[in-house]
Amino acid sequence: MHASVVLLVRYGEIALKSTYVRRHLEDQLAANVRDMFAANDVECVVKTERGRLFVYADDEVAALKLLRRVFGIVSISPAKEALAKLETLTTAVVDYARPLLAAGQTFAIRPRRSGQHPYTSQDLARVLGRAVLGAIPGLTVDLDEPDVELNVEVRGPRAYVFHEIASGAGGLPLGSQGTVLAIADDEPGMVATWLVMRRGCRARVSGRDPFLATLRGWDPRLATLDQMPVAVLVRLAAEKGEPVVLPTLDFAASEGETPFVLRPLAGFSRDELTNLTRRIRER
Q1: Do 232 and 212 share a structural domain?
Q2: Residue 170 belongs to a domain
Q3: Fewer C-beta within 10 Å: the chain N or C terminus?
Q4: Which strands make up the sheet holding 179-184, listed edge to edge?
Q5: What is the per-residue pLDDT across 22-81, written as a single tens digit (0 to 9) for each?
Q6: What does the pLDDT look like over 112-161, one tens digit per residue?
Q7: How far is residue 48's CA from residue 133's CA, in Å, rounded to a whole number?
Q8: Domain that holds residue 65
Q9: Burial 144-173 (b: 16+ CB within 10 A, else e)
Q10: What pTM was estimated for this model as a whole?
Q11: Judgement on whether residues 184 and 269 belong to the same structural domain of the protein
Q12: Based on the domain organization, do 233 and 220 belong to the same domain?
């Protein structure tokens, strides 16, 4: 595959884990990205490097949309890839800046480096800033509140230039924290299930089609169960020794509950529930 764009994928909690656990979670995250793209018939190539995933794709809009629905991803940036050699990188940054900047605007270069290079981050900011100023007349540097921030991330022999940082779903990769049973026959049930999925759990869900379809947009491998009353689902969870997710909005106990009951919506206000429902349904 000859990809036309690379997307820098950042994660949060994963980076804080031990080396062994981090590698496991990175592998799970990469596999989930591939699953999401394959389920939506979008081609991609995924490469893993500590602290980052690099996703190569032809359709930037579709790729960004799908990556925002993969749990474990904190943010995404479509980027231009270049060699880290200063002369080559300077040309790439100027070419990238031309369609973004015009006379009268302000900008800033935000460099970051990982690895050994014959220049410092300050050198990089100075050289690239001067090059952009010389190529596009009428610009001004503003390090505090620029109109456009040009981010330059140098990692070993490669460099990545970007200006957009899109938020991701956050959380942990699906499949990294076991399996739960859940019920999603209304909006609270759908939101409760989503919150547990966001913490890395695969859910087997009993519910109605509109809510199951929404959840499947976040997990192409979503497993479904026949519709059943809450009491039956709780008994099933007890029999199988699996946690069960219930959508109640308070801390009140229900008859027949077991120690495996999870209530992720406990303490949520109605407004918080409504806002989260809207976010989950965004496409």
Answers
A1: yes
A2: no
A3: C
A4: 223-225, 202-207, 179-184, 244-245, 261-262
A5: 899 999 999 999 999 999 999 999 999 877 899 999 999 999 999 999 999 999 999 999
A6: 999 999 999 999 999 999 999 999 999 999 999 999 999 999 999 999 99
A7: 35
A8: 5-81
A9: eebebbbbbbbbeebbbbbbeeeebbebbb
A10: 0.90
A11: yes
A12: yes
